[in-house]
Design a protein that fits this description.
The protein has 9 helices and 7 strands; from the N terminus they run ααααβαβαβαβαβαββ. The chain is α/β, with parallel strands linked by helices. A hairpin with a 5-residue loop joins strand 6 and strand 7.
Length: about 220
């Protein structure tokens, strides 16, 4: 059995050179975000955005929920992959960062597919369940404050349809999940979520060791 390949900078650059399909809109938003305070750390890698778009096309997802917008790079990647009539509901605590991405959504011609909700994510999820009902989304992407992960993912599993997909970012959390000395609230919450999902009979599960860890959980039918 071969071990995981260690990605040197040169190998990562090679992988991108033979797989990443980039364009000016994506690149400019990514570069603008990287120049913001903490932007480089909080933004997903371009190949993760491409993976999310592929997952939407593979699953035929038309109704997508994103928990954590930031500057909307992942929002843009997913919105572009939606079929005609599709929508992505994306939620963030503040208008400040999504406002950075909104002009790029317009440039890409997908602003009409994006439903931005501003406010506490827990409240937004509760409102969605109350007003639209459970099982309404085909795919949910979670990339928000880590301390809220266990709650967000439980709500997401109610909101996603049977056979739908939950994708959770940062589930390796910079390696802190494997460090017994790390006991901050964010690390503890990610560990709790990982442990819950392992034993959750409602889902099929895989943790991809790319980027900062991406967990895929398919809600069983």
């Amino acid at each position: 059995m071969a071990d995981q390949t260690a990605l040197s900078p040169a190998l990562l650059e090679y992988a991108r050179s033979v797989s990443l399909r980039d364009d000016a809109v994506l690149r400019e938003l990514r570069e603008l975000t990287a120049a913001l305070p903490g932007g480089r750390a909080m933004q997903i890698m371009p190949e993760e955005g491409q993976l999310l778009a592929l997952l939407i096309r593979l699953t035929g997802a038309a109704q997508v929920l994103e928990i954590g917008t930031f500057t909307g790079y992942s929002t843009l990647c997913m919105a572009r992959a939606l079929p005609p009539g599709g929508r992505i509901v994306t939620c963030d605590i503040t208008e400040r960062w999504p406002g950075v991405g909104a002009p790029f959504w317009q440039r890409a011609g997908v602003a009409d597919r994006i439903d931005l909700r501003i406010g506490d994510a827990a409240r937004t999820l509760a409102e969605l369940r109350a007003h639209e009902g459970d099982g309404i989304f085909d795919l949910v992407f979670v990339d928000a404050d880590k301390a809220g992960y266990p709650h967000y993912c439980e709500e997401a599993l109610a909101l996603v349809r049977p056979g739908g997909l939950l994708a959770v970012d940062n589930t390796l959390f910079l390696g802190r999940v494997a460090d017994p000395r790390a006991d901050d609230p964010d690390t503890l919450a990610v560990r709790e979520l990982n442990a819950r999902l392992l034993h959750d009979e409602r889902v099929d599960l895989a943790l991809l060791t790319m980027a900062d860890g991406i967990t895929l959980a398919r809600r069983r039918e």
